[in-house]
User: What shape does this take?
Amino acid sequence: MAKANFDVPELKEYVDVPELVEGTMAHLSPFIAKPDHNIPLGFPGELVEDWHDKALEKLDDLRSRYRSLQVYLDACVKCGACTDKCHYYLSTKDPKNMPVGRQDLLRKVYRRYNTFAGKYFPWLVGAEDLTRETLDDWYSYYHQCSQCRRCSVFCPYGIDTAEISMAAREILDSVGYGQKYCNEIIAKVHEKGNNLGLPGPAILDTLEGLEEDVEEETGVVVKFPLDVKGADILLVTPSADFFAEPHVDGLIGYGKVFHEAGISWTLSTTASEAGNFGMFIGSYENMRKVAMRIRTAALELGVKRIVFGECGHAWRVAYAFLNTLAGPFDFLDPKYPVPQHICEFTYDLIQQGKLNFDKSANDDMTLTFHDSCNVARATRMGDKPGGQFDIPRAVIKAVCNNYVDMDHETIGEKTFCCGGGGGLLTDDLMEIRVKGALPRMTALQNAIKEEGVTHMAAICAICKSQFTKVLPYYGMDMDQIVSVHQLVSNAIILTGQNTDEDDADDESDGDE
Amino acid sequence: MSTVYALLFIVATLVLVIGLARKIVQYAKTPAPLKIATTPAPVTQAGVVMRMFREVVFFESLFKGTKWTWIFAWLFHMALFVVLLRHLRYFTDPVWLPIELIQPFGVYAGFAMLAGLAGLLVRRIFVDRVRYISAPSDYLWLLVLIFIGISGLMMKFVAHTDIVMVKQFFTGLMGFSIGTLPIDFPLVVHLTLVALLMILFPFSKLLHVPGIFFSPSRNQVDNPREKRHLAPWAKAMEE
Assistant: This one.
């Protein structure tokens, strides 16, 4: 059990909608970005003196560039449909963590300075001046939003709090009041090519290690190529896949699938990161710059296709934004969508009967699947709406005998965020991360009790890291979260692979 | 007094039409730089039309969200729609047959509308989360609509207004000639509040009416991989 200096919510059978209690999370703010983090991103180093006017100017600028922001600021009727939909509200009771409560922090300022009613009758429409307290509230509560879009599913106008929170973070960045975690990471991507700042040689070293492991385990030489010109496929994957558990087991799975497919592939040092934190801070410019690395790498390596590894927000930027940010991709093979998700890729091969599995290899587990928010509500897989739910499940079911879904109110388009998305995956926000996981943990625990589930699979690096950290707070084991391609890796039978009797020896090798 | 009301309705109509047109132009002109449809989303334009239809006519998302609010909100809006159709007879001569036919339903709709509004008001007062997010204007809008409904029904059931005269006044006004309006208390309340609503419409949360049609999470086709989507200001970055 992990120790905490806050109250970890108790798991019950259901998550009841709590009565609100004001200010329960007002104390929590992430670390503030330093000049070193801000300046490479094009933001002022620290909070500027004329932040008040600059923030209002930025709001005007964003309203003129984003229809979503303008419409969403105007259209809310305060119907309350979203008020009980946010995992952070359900677990903290803080009304500023209700989607509309969060939006209103910005909306009240918009109304005060930009609408007739708010200028002349502020008390009537809840308009308020932009004060230092408001600015701090923005900083605190817009960093308690994981931009998961669950609220947007239920809003009669489709108001997406993620859009508001991205805009608010961009305003904060524009006055030099950004968040350390996101900005430091974006600066690292700009400089090194991945969120973790891993240099090329370190990646190469890891990949060679993986080749050895797989050969030892299976007797088959499976290559994990880096910067190989002329490969068919460029694989772009979250950098956590290079070292963290259970991510790396997923990477091994991708490698085995490519190997069996007989298609040449490569990773890239300069595009060694699928994640794009530019989205979290709402900065089109930074998001574009990060996305352009992928275009450049694809051109330099002369690949024909781009495939993305398991990562939720990365898949959103890849699926929904990459063509916009870094397209057109007319230099790639037009027979395939650009980009493709690794689950789409594996699923196609399964459909064609090109992969052989021993499903019993996963018989020690009963699996369930956590739909990651960005995949579920901001992207698609395959050519039919909802493919983002069906395809990963089809892959899991093709490689596992035991699979059950969690409570249907908590999966699919209604899925609950892991609690760590949207740039919140940092230790200084641990309290909100642990609390925000409550609805998912509740559904998981019910599936464990009622269906005998032992493990939960996910296709998002943030979800995997978050659950690894958070599961122990709720009395579960950190290794109960697995990668989908880890399951594929377990079950896939490589051509020429060692037979069963060799496996017994491998068991004794142990983990390092 | 009739002249005052004639002018009031000319002003109200102008404010409503020009104000709404300005907002619609603003929404239409503001680019949506990224594909942000809430998925699963339709992959064709026809699918988007269907999604929008379900949203506008059935309040699909609200139905998913909260059943009580959905019942009251849907009842109110659909009843209001029928009531508005019924009112067309005060502005057209001869009256269009379908409008003739719905006249009796329009009266029931008046009561249904009030029931919906009352439900929404009760919810706003008694659900702590909704109370927290409500500003005075949120209550006032409900009260304005409730009083419009009550005063309208009063003219039918309590103190009959000379409705033929009212019709002559409005059809006359549409040809810019000012006639005489019967000055009855319920009619005065009814018309004053309707004019107020028309004037405030473009400056208020009633902008949800045009807003829904411009909401990118609902009106975008889910085809970002197939078709490149680029806002003018984003295109400028590429040059």
The mean pLDDT of chain B is 96. The longest helix of chain B spans residues 97-126. Chain B touches chain A through 64 residues (CB under 8 Å). The CA atoms of residues 124 and 134 of chain B lie 7 Å apart.
